[in-house]
Specification:
With 254 residues, this protein is of the alpha+beta class. The protein has 7 helices and 5 strands.
Amino acid sequence: MADETENETPETEASEAENVQAPEAEAQTPEPTEAATPEAETPETPAADTPEADDAPTTEAPETPEADAPAAETPEADAPEPDASAAPTASAALEPVEQLSPKERRRKARSTHSGEAGSTRSPEERHAERVTERRAKAVSRRARRLSERAKAAERRAAKPAAEPLAPVHAPVEGKRSVRQGIVVSDKADKTITVRIDFARRHRRYEKIVRSSSTLHAHDESNDAHEGDTVRVIESRPLSKNKRWKLVDVVERAR
């Protein structure tokens, strides 16, 4: 028995020494970092290739690179992840900006207000702020009005010249009628009363129907007298009843 133990002692001692050295070698091997390449991630231990290590009981951790290295060491994990906020920004840049009215902009600004009270200001400071705001608004309002006037002037200049409209009532003087009659009265000053006799045929009975009418005519020089045959012409209204003027005396009364 003593011989057997002596014979077995060198081999067992050598195997135990190798088993002890193998874990120490594995513990001393530096762990691969995240920046290491895929080839460097596979740990190689010389103790695993020796036949003595195969015969001895294995107490070390499995030699698979997946177990030794963390999952984040893969090339896919090493690559930086795309920023999730970058995609919405690019898509928002492509989308058209929503045009809001001034009322909608003010409402949106009020909705985003935190509700905190502002600093205390004196009446003079508030008045100065109001004056500054009014002046700024007046400047912007004047600029807008000037631009609108310029645009309106450009539109008017671009339009073709309008053709002149024909007058509704053309200044055409009609033919004034002239009548001949007998003076029946010259008592008024510069006025004579003339009787106009008409003779016409009746449309159904074909009988000659005689009628007369009187009118007042203006006689500037009182030339015509009662019984004279005169000729008168239309004129503008000279008085309440006078619408005619004396042209000449055709025949004097005897």
